[in-house]
Amino acid sequence: MSYAIIGFGKIGQALAHAFARKNIDVTVASRRPPEALAPQARAIGPSVVAKSLQNAVEADTIILAIPFWEHRAVAKALPSWEGKTVIDATNAYGVLLEELDGLPSSAVIAKAFTGAKFVKGFNHLPAAALAADPTVEGGHRVVFLSSDDEDATAPVAALAKQLGFAPVKLGKLNEGGALVQARGRIWGQLIFQDLFKKEQ
């Protein structure tokens, strides 16, 4: 399984730290050329490699860590997303509800990635918490996952566990997923909730 993080701001770098901590290879890309990202990628760890967007989208699993509206440009990088898993770690801060047609922001993004297995995840934590070691006092930091495709969630939950997090499935995007949506000035109840799950 190959992984890529699209977006290399605070959240993208925090996720890269999570991969580096477990020595899992991950590609990082953004609007900037790969050589601009390379020094920071190398500083995070040898398993983090900067590539072009076009190369990054060749990965099996792609995490979106970009400003909300940039998803359109990323979606155009491939004619079809069949066979790919897309993890939406974005939040629609400041995006007017009318612009979303009353849909959860993830549902809007999912439409652009035709054919992909689509999961909302890793979006509710601030970058500092996401970058920190998720193993705390005999437990693991929780990440919430939601998807309209039950089969899509399992491999993303497996990745979250591999990274040291405790995945909690919230169900469909318009149900439990709404608890981790940030859009306009409305915040889901679970945004920024830094929770831990104890080992059983």
From TrEMBL:
UniProt keyword list: Oxidoreductase
Domain Pyrroline-5-carboxylate reductase catalytic N-terminal: 3-91
GO molecular function terms attached to this record: cupric reductase (NADH) activity; ferric-chelate reductase (NADPH) activity
A GO biological-process term: copper ion import
Name of the molecule in the record: Pyrroline-5-carboxylate reductase catalytic N-terminal domain-containing protein
GO cellular component: plasma membrane
InterPro entries in the cross-refs: NAD(P)-bd_dom_sf, P5C_Rdtase_cat_N, STEAP_metalloreductase
